[in-house]
Amino acid sequence: MTLLHGLFTAIITPFKNGALDEKALQSLVQWQIEQGVQGVVPCGTTGESPTLSHEEHKRVVELTVQAVAGRAIVIAGTGSNATAEAIELTQHAKKAGADAVLVVAPYYNKPSQEGLFQHFKAIQDAAEIPNIIYNIPARSIVNISDDTLARLAVLPNIAGIKDATGDLARVSTMRQKVDDDFVLLSGEDMTAVGFNAMGGKGCFSVTSNVAPALCARVQSLSLAGKFAEALVVHESLVNLHQAMFAETNPMGVKYAVSLMGKCENELRLPLTPASDATKAQIKAAMQALGLI
Predict the structure, then answer these.
(1) Active site residue: 162, 201, 254, 279, which one?
(2) Model-wide pTM > 0.85
(3) 141 is a domain residue
(4) Is the pLDDT of residue 132 over 70?
């Protein structure tokens, strides 16, 4: 699916006084589009989806679709460790007008490879919408094997994978198992250039919440095969990438966006605001890039 190429911002979910800040969310989405991203991803890890109620989750997707208004791609996070819940959220995303869904590997349950296959198959059977599988073993504990991915890739609504393993070798091993139209997307900002050089087609980015134009530039250059130029831009972002992940995401990025006056530095427990040391690291990285 050609539209699933480029930079996709894993958008934060702004809160204010404990509630969803709808105005800040739509303003952020508008700014992201103006800055040149290919799409936005509401209700992912960075969007604190585990702390959203079902009603809030659905509202975030609806607000994002409304704010995008067809000008970019909306990939709604709809994953869950309960297959029935993931199906419900996926069907809602389809109804709300999302272009695709991002479905994380089930966490905590620790399913087998057969369980993973049946989980993703049931979700893709339930709604006619492109599914992006999300492999992030550091959070979900389970790792989707290349063989399981190959079985999934032939299903009609499975369009690609967001690989957040940080293992660039996976790009090559996955490419041996899937067709060329199966989209491989990085889930790690720091590997964006290398991932594309090895056959990837884009990145789901956390840092682009803060520096969307620069992150979009990295993607446009690398996807055009201009890797030396892409590397120059990428290396200018390295300190910011590191700062974003100095503590658990999205603790860092929430603070960074708040420094820009675009949201409150408010998270939901069990996440807490970033430490003073991390705040100083983030602020210095942003100042070096002229972001604040």
Answers:
(1) 162
(2) yes
(3) yes
(4) yes
